[in-house]
Structure to design on (290 residues):
């Protein structure tokens, strides 16, 4: 999708005053929490990274994928993370998804210092705190929507009655209450992605982490999925979305762009949209901490 299609959704009032949307924090608040090494963030923060670095040894050559990323995401925020190839975007997503550990720096997830945890501890935190949504839906083809959503609860040992109730609630939260017994091949692409979102929500995670969630969808269906994320955010779900599409990123309330392993820009939606519509490049250095 082209940058010319970026949705002009703004949080500027008719009088011209920029407002802080629910769940958003000021620049000073974010800087204060990332500039306090060793201190546990308070309950207002779900993700805090301080000087996160990730190095890889590639046959004797060290690749610096992340060079010191400072980022704070508050509870109930809806944030998009962008970046060109080689920016460190995928590495950072793996880091905040507890799929990898940093070479240096701190990562706090929902008040827990996860950057020093063992693999087993990380797996437990990951299963409890993070709901993943991927570009490919990863649904079991012979199972119904309800059974697919119940699956994480089966692994967690949740009793059958509670499993059924929570899966139904998750499907209803993405407006699929009338499709619970349909199998994936009986659902549209958008409906299948909504089943995947419901499955990510069923464990009641602290964050919903979506990796290119519209990559396999057409434009109209992509807008449908973005409305689902917006509704979930409005209800208080923290959403972090990784995407390379500016018009998809513009649905988030805040857009963070990585470049060369560092935060290149960190802007509220209206500032990001204005910059792109003004002819600026997505990946050029913008404002950090607006």
């Amino acid at each position: 999708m082209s940058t010319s299609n970026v949705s002009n959704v703004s949080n500027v009032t008719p009088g011209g005053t920029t407002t802080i949307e629910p769940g958003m924090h000021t620049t000073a608040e974010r800087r204060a929490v990332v500039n306090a090494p060793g201190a546990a963030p308070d309950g207002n923060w779900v993700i805090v990274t301080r000087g996160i670095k990730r190095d890889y040894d590639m046959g004797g050559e060290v690749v610096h994928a992340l060079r010191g990323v400072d980022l704070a995401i508050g509870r109930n925020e809806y944030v998009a993370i962008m970046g060109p190839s080689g920016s460190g975007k995928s590495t950072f997503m793996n880091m905040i998804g507890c799929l990898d550990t940093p070479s240096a720096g701190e990562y706090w997830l929902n008040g827990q210092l996860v950057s020093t945890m063992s693999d087993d501890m990380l797996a437990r935190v990951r299963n409890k705190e993070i709901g993943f949504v991927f570009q490919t839906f990863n649904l079991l083809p012979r199972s119904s929507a309800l059974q697919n959503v119940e699956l994480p609860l089966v692994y967690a040992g949740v009793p059958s009655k509670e499993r059924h109730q929570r899966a139904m609630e998750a499907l209803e939260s993405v407006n699929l209450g009338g499709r619970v017994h349909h199998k994936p091949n009986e659902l549209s692409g958008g409906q299948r992605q909504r089943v995947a979102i419901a499955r990510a929500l069923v464990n009641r995670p602290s964050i919903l982490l979506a990796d290119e969630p519209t990559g396999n969808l057409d434009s109209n269906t992509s807008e449908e999925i973005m409305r689902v994320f917006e509704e979930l955010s409005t209800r208080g779900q923290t959403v972090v979305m990784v995407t390379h599409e500016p018009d998809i990123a513009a649905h988030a309330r805040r857009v963070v762009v990585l470049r060369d392993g560092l935060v290149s820009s960190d802007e509220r939606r209206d500032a990001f949209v204005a910059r792109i519509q003004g002819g600026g490049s997505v990946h050029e250095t913008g404002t950090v901490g607006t």
Q: What stands out?
A: The chain is about 30% helix and 25% strand. The radius of gyration is 19 Å.
